[in-house]
């Protein structure tokens, strides 16, 4: 029943997403926000000693995203927020980004396992994130802050009037809330809300802000209009990328190194079932992302076809860019033949019925199917990462049209140094006429 409700925003966001990329690269790319310099990058927030400058106040930026958005769009919003924090740190205070705990994601449906208040450290390498921008987990924030209090929540929204006279301009203004506020006042006058499942968290003040533009348009507001220590931006996906696919985007993206235990599980699986090892496949990975600079085409990948086949809400909408299972299997077989690949690894969110049908059509496919214990350990998010990691190492990859899950795999392969020809392919709908293929976004180092 929630299916429709989820489908719509996801599609809209996906289209805004590609629109944004295009739009920003043309109109806003020249904005004054550049990549942070190296000293800044390596200074760790709370321990930082700023040698000459006057003492800077420690301030916290928290954020959350529209509930129906999935894991991979949230990873994209992290990039926007990291960019904002870099801008904030360039002048003024010592801002730290507080990582919003994972949980209550619509797609994480495995029941009977605890899937809220998951720290980022379960999915990503925190030390890697830290090299890019100072970040802390939410529980660390509570400890440092002296309690689960957030001084100010800014709920971001668009402008009620839309784009006046169809003209795009960047702007930000305090405005009355358009939608029903998802926060309510308790007896003590504090605001209560979802707060990632931390029931004891409360906010001292909640106001709405209409914002239209890239993430760093919030910098002057956070620096000048608001003086409190901790500020949370809710509906942070409202803000666009400062510079999509620019150096700063890629620095942050490259810093999002998956947790080691998930990578190791993926690597073991590759070796065991797909005859794939980094040495033979030329996919040597460095834990230190600042040293990963693989040349395009240097990675060969494992002797298997990697497939991301997004189903669920993508088929309920009867989208014409999504294939039938039969159509998808035909495509897989022809790619395996063309590229002489022995195996096919399939990552999919297909339901049980479709999974069975897929297995019937493609009996020799390989899937990562965690035991109950493994699922409890890695959770749905970790399993999705393992699937992505295995797809990222395939000799050839094919994904699903406008799936952020597939986009993140593209980026991972770009980091590993695959030839773009082996990465930017997607399934076409059975009756789709113009099947536009994914865009190659090159890393800016
Ligand atoms: N394990 C696994 N999970 C998947 C796969 N595809 C989708 N999912 C699950 O479905 C969720 C939704 O896909 P996401 O890509 O995260 O959602 P999104 O960010 O809105 O992205 P798209 O809807 O794909 O654009 C994922 O986070 C996973 O939990 C898959 O191939 N393998
Ligand atoms: C911030 O302060 C300036 C100057 O006082 C004011 O003009 C502007 O409207 C304020 N912006 C917001 C978003 O509150
Ligand atoms: C709440 O925040 C708004 C915007 O920063 C501010 O104008 C207002 O005075 C604050 N209210 C309280 C009670 O602090
Ligand atoms: C694994 O790959 C190697 C070289 O790529 C090949 O020689 C070997 O036969 C393969 N093993 C299996 C079990 O397919």
From TrEMBL:
GO biological process: fucose metabolic process
Catalytic activity from the UniProt record: L-threonyl-[protein] + GDP-beta-L-fucose = 3-O-(alpha-L-fucosyl)-L-threonyl-[protein] + GDP + H(+); L-seryl-[protein] + GDP-beta-L-fucose = 3-O-(alpha-L-fucosyl)-L-seryl-[protein] + GDP + H(+)
Enzyme Commission numbers on file: 2.4.1.221
Subcellular location(s) of the protein: Endoplasmic reticulum; Golgi apparatus
Protein keywords: Carbohydrate metabolism, Disulfide bond, Endoplasmic reticulum, Fucose metabolism, Glycoprotein, Glycosyltransferase, Golgi apparatus, Membrane, Signal, Transferase, Transmembrane, Transmembrane helix
TM region positions: 6-33
Pathway: Protein modification; protein glycosylation
GO molecular function ontology, one term from the record: peptide-O-fucosyltransferase activity
Top EC category: transferase
Family annotation (InterPro entries): GDP-Fuc_O-FucTrfase, OFUT2-like
An annotated GO cellular component: endoplasmic reticulum membrane
Domain of life: Eukaryota
Entry-linked PROSITE patterns: PROKAR_LIPOPROTEIN
Main localization category: endoplasmic reticulum
Purpose of the protein: Catalyzes the reaction that attaches fucose through an O-glycosidic linkage to a conserved serine or threonine residue in the consensus sequence C1-X-X-S/T-C2 of thrombospondin type I repeats (TSRs) where C1 and C2 are the first and second cysteines of the repeat, respectively. O-fucosylates members of several protein families including the ADAMTS, the thrombospondin (TSP) and spondin families. Required for the proper secretion of ADAMTS family members such as ADAMTSL1 and ADAMTS13.
Family listed: Belongs to the glycosyltransferase 68 family.
Name assigned to this protein: GDP-fucose protein O-fucosyltransferase 2
Naturally occurring in which organism (per UniProt): Cottoperca gobio (Frogmouth)
Name of the encoding gene: pofut2
